[in-house]
Amino acid sequence: MSPIRRVVATSPDPEGPESSAGTTQSRVVGRVLRIAMVVLLVGAIVLLSWAGHTKNRQISELKTQGQTHQGVVVSCLGELGGSGSNPAGYSCQGTYRVNGVRYQVTLPGTSFRAPGSRFVAVVAPSDPTVMSTPAVLAGEEASNAVYRLPAALLVVLLVGVAGDRLLRRRTMSPS
């Protein structure tokens, strides 16, 4: 017998204890990331749907039940474009009264209004802070288009969950 022994170096067994901690840790991180993405997408879907529904409800209420009130322009400031050298419009502040309560508002639109001039405010009876002018309100419509983005995000969520399950089944099933 020869006193010399041959030692062959091998890579660690992928099923052995050396790599199981790394595999388990990466699975946990992957699972946490998948759950976080699902929660974020569901949150975005709910938030955007709620915002769209609220906007549609406000437009409908202003158009069908809106009450007109006289308001007064308090100030009007010019706004500059991105370079700071060309005018982009005006931001005007005004006040109006509903049932003796005075409300201050940034007027919709970008046209100049002289301070002290009057404007007509169309106010929602259920919430006097929801206000528009007749000109701006004429261009508004309640629409199902506000649900397009939430619907697209729902499709992304469903495809992602289905794809994740399909991938996990393929990697778990014996080949």
Written overview of the protein:
With 175 residues, this protein is of the alpha+beta class. It has 2 domains: 24-65 and 141-168; 67-123. Helix content is 45%, strand content 23%. Strands 3-2-1-4-5 form a 5-stranded antiparallel sheet. Helix 1 runs antiparallel to helix 3. The longest helix is centred in the first third of the chain and has 49 residues, at 17-65. The mean pLDDT is 86.
H-E order: HEEEEEHH
Specify the biggest β-sheet: 5 strands, antiparallel
Percentage of residues in strands: 15-25%
Q: Treating each run of at least 4 consecutive H or I residues as one helix, how many helices?
A: 3
Q: How many domains make up the coordinates?
A: 2
Rg, rounded, reads 31 Å
Q: Per the principal axes of the C-alpha atoms, what is the gross shape?
A: elongated
How do the strands line up in the largest sheet?
Answer: 3-2-1-4-5
Structural class, from helix and strand content? Answer: alpha+beta
Helix content: 40-55%
- Number-wise, the strands total 5
Mean pLDDT: 86
* Span of the ends, CA to CA: 44 Å
Low-confidence stretches: none
